[in-house]
Amino acid sequence: MSDQWTDRLSEYLDGELPPDRRAELEAHLRHCVACGAVLADLKRIVTRAQGLEDRAPERDLWPGVAARIGAAAPGSRRARPSGAPRRRWSFSLPQLAAAGIALMALSGGAAWLLRPLGRVPLASQPSPAATRWEARQLPGQGDGGVLAVAARPRGERSYDAAVADLERVLEAGRGRLDTATVRVIVRNLATIDSAIAQAQRAVAADSANLYLNSHLAETMRRKLELLRQAATLVSSVS
Amino acid sequence: MLLSLVHLALAALALTQQVDTTVSVQQGQRLVVDAYGGDIDVKTWARNAVRVEADAGSRTHVEVVTSAGAVRVRTEGHRGPPSAVDLRITVPVWMGLDMSGVYTDVTVNGVKGPVNVETVQGEVDVTGGAGLVSLRSVEGAVTLKGAKGRIDVHSVNDDVRVSGSSGEIVAESVNGEIVLERVDATSLEATTVNGDVGYDGPIRSGGRYELSSHNGDVTMAVTEQTSASVTVSTFSGEFESAIPVTLRETRKGKRFSFTLGAGSAQVSLESFQGTVRLVRPGAATTSE
Question: Which end of chain A is more exposed for a tag (fewer CB within 10 A), N or C?
Answer without folding.
Answer: C
